[in-house]
Amino acid sequence: MAELQTKDVETTPKVAHDQQTLEKYWHENRNLVFTMLGIWFAVTYLTQLFANALNGVVIAGFPLGYYMGGQGSLIAFVVMIFYYAKKMNEIDKKYNLEEEEEN
Amino acid sequence: MKLRQIFTYYTVGFVAFTVILGILEALKLIDLKGIGYVFMAFSVLVYAFIGFVTRTSDPSEYYVAGRGINSIYNGMATGSDWMSAASFISMAGLLFALGHMGLAYIMGWTGGYVLLALLLAPYLRKFGQYTVPDFLGTRYGGSGARVIGIICAILVSLTYLTAQLTGVGTIVSRFIGLPYEPGVFIGLAGVLVCSFLGGMRAVTWTQVAQYIILITAYLIPVVVLSAKLFFIPIPELTYGQILQRVSVMEKQIAGKDNPNPNNIPADVLNSKIDPAKEKESRDLWLKDLAMYKAKLSNVDSALAADKTSLEAKLASLADDKVAERRAALEKQKADAQAMINAPQPIDPKTKKPVMMDAEKLKELEGKIADADKQLATLAPERVKAEKEKTQKASAALPKNAEEAKIKWNAALATATAQSKPPSDYLTIPPFVSADGKSYPMLQFLGLIFCLMVGTAGLPHILTRYYTTPSVKQARSSVGWSLFFIFLLYFTAPAYAAFARYEVFVNLVGVEIANLPSWIASWKLVGLLDIVDKNGDGIVQFADFIIKSTDFVVLATPEIAGLPATITGLVMAGGLAAALSTADGLLLTIANAFSHDLYYKIINPSASVQTRVLISKVLLVVVAIIGASIAAFVKLPVIAATVAWAFSFAASSLFPALVLGIWWRRTTGIAAILGMVSGLVVSISYSILNFFSTSPNNALGFAQPFSILSLRHTESGMLGLPVAFIVIIVVSLLTPAPDKSLQDFVYSVRFPKGAEKGKEVESIGGAA
Asked: How does the average pLDDT of chain B come out, rounded?
């Protein structure tokens, strides 16, 4: 396992990609991340800030504001992470940046 | 054997084991304590066995499990790494007590994974290497950042570890009735076998095994309860109905007008709720509250007054004094009788005896009755009882002002809590509190924010994403982690609602003599108490004293009518939760010392064997230090420190990591200054606020120290912005990092070229 010990500074991807492709890839990733962060913020902070108004809506006994805090936001978190993982795999492929010899 | 097969056999074996215990219990061959011993011995043995089978001294295996953990298993391991004793046993109770406010923990302890997935995990995996300080050291070039990283990692993990070990001690002592201190060390032994023998590899597989136990244990009781009440075994769907009923009964107890606007049928509510009696009990608590407040305003004189009045009472109960009073009363009685019996004077005019006027007669008869009453209290056995009671009271009298203060403050806290009508479960924290001095909404959102960001900065969670075979798997592994955590977290609000419903429906209004059995059993353990304040022999909500909200999870099996075996299972689940978290933390601390400090800074030429050996030795040392703090120091701050760990991580590691990955311009010196200033702000705010608001106010503050009414648990709200601002400003003022470093940061962004791990197929063989 000696080869795993020190590899302090990695170089840029071994297969040469032109700078433009890399920039585009990163740009797409960044936009996706910012969109997701926006959803994350809305799902938690906005729903809780306006929980009073949301509590006026009651579904199956659940006031919506309470539901979003106790369950709704959690469901959104799980879905968001899986969605991001899937989307990123697609983007990796699109720019030919996916990892080699996938297990 | 293939992994899937192993864990299938394991699960089946575990279920069979539980069923056998259940049968033994039904045959009355074993009681709860016996079940406790068997469960504990069995589970710790299983963990030790896994630790033994997966033992290793290979550094890649020891530090990052050979980067071979498939994303689903890594998710399970992260899940149990993450879910601590607090999540398992205490969280549902917090929701029970805090209502909507408590949801901060539910959201805060899950939402951080979104930040992990988006901002950190894939990039750390691409970077490779072993620990979080590794990343800081490489990214910010030099030992300075690494050392600060080490300090942050240790500080955060050690506070958290102490809380876990405290949890282990509490569970073991409740579980099998051992005293708390040995409990801590027994639990510790369980933790050590795994991490000592096999490092990350053993810890990972043990955590997977622990996850299976803890999630089964958590779900069974509340699923059964839901099926019983609604015929639908999905509590997460049915508890909405419960919420509605609970909020009606709360209003009834509080004596509000129009408690049932939606006309919920009375047969699912409690007809025995009596608002008048509830008010009566609450008013009695209010009197207590006023009394203790008065006493606390001048402790010395109140204590002296108590003492003199008890002494006076005792003196008045002395034999000769009692005899004297008896004689006086007898005389009073005889005199009155004599006056009644005395021949009436003859009216000289009518020559007839004058009738004593009715008023006078009544007065004399009253005097006799009064004397009789007082004489009855002076009967020898009554006097004896009274004397004993008084002696007991004076023995229980606080020895000094210090003790009196503590005792009366506790009594004051109880009286304050009991004198309030049940808080509205669904109420949203207002923007500004009634007295205009604090901002509950800001506290609520601030706590959510600190817990979320802190989650994404906890070293023992971050290192877990080094263990996946690829960047791709690191991304999906965060999803699996949260999925497995989610199963428990989105059930917790249901737990709380069902427990609250149970209290309102089956406890309020019953006779003290006929308490539900779960009350009796958890009263013994000291989690709750019933005090019949107005002495009517019936339980009012105000009579129900909650000493620890942990009863919510622990008592639910009994409430659902399940056998004691399931209660034992729940405790085994709690133990698994505490042990698994302690495992992960211990490993992180030991690695920070051995790998980051010793190997990377002190002795870079150390051989592979020396490094792993040192790590193992340090593991034991750190474990003993942690356990000693938990067992002997017992700081009152321990309960608070769990939440502190999140704020500390949010104010130091998180900003340095995020900016390090996302902004190439971030310089080393900026990161160091940022981490230090964030940490200093956060720690000092927590300490100042905690000690200036706690009832003891040990540091003698004139008034509570706070900014924007933030509490000590939300110090990250100040530390995080400070850290970010310092890092950004200093970075702009210092020369940009050199080209090779910028290239390195750039390379982390692209998955291609990541160091590969090979997925583990089976546990036993060397991978």
From this structure: 86
> What ipTM was estimated for this complex?
0.87
Q: Are strands B528-530 and A58-59 parallel, antiparallel or unpaired?
A: unpaired
Flag if A92 and B106 touch (Cβ within 8 Å): no
Q: Is the dihedral of CA B450, B460, B652, B479 positive or negative?
A: negative
Nearest-by-Cβ selection for A97 from B118, B473, B752: B752
Does pLDDT of A15 surpass 70? no
> A11 vs B444: CB contact, 8 Å cut-off?
no
B117: chain A residues, CB-CB within 8 Å: 80-81, 84-85
Tens digits of residue pLDDT in B272-324: 888 888 888 999 999 988 888 888 888 888 888 888 888 888 888 888 888 88
Written as six digits, the tokens of B6 are 């192993």
Using a CB-CB cut-off of 8 Å, the residues of chain A touching B239 are: 61
The per-residue pLDDT for range B71-124, each reduced to its tens digit, is 899 999 999 999 988 888 888 988 998 889 899 999 999 999 999 999 999 999
Cα maximum dimension of chain A: 63
pLDDT digits (tens, 9 = 90+) for B170-213: 777 777 777 878 878 877 777 787 677 778 888 889 999 999 99
The pLDDT score that the predictor gives to residue B767 is: 40
Nearest to B479 among A60, A74, A81 (CB): A81
CB atoms within 10 A of CB B423: 14
Interchain proximity A62–B58, CB inside 8 Å? no
The distance from CA B97 to its chain's CA centroid, rounded to whole angstroms, is 11
Nearest to B571 by CA among B42, B8, B11: B42
Domains and CATH numbers, chain B: 3-231+439-495+561-748 (1.20.1730.10), 298-408 (no CATH)
Cβ atoms of B138 and B744 within 8 Å: the answer is yes
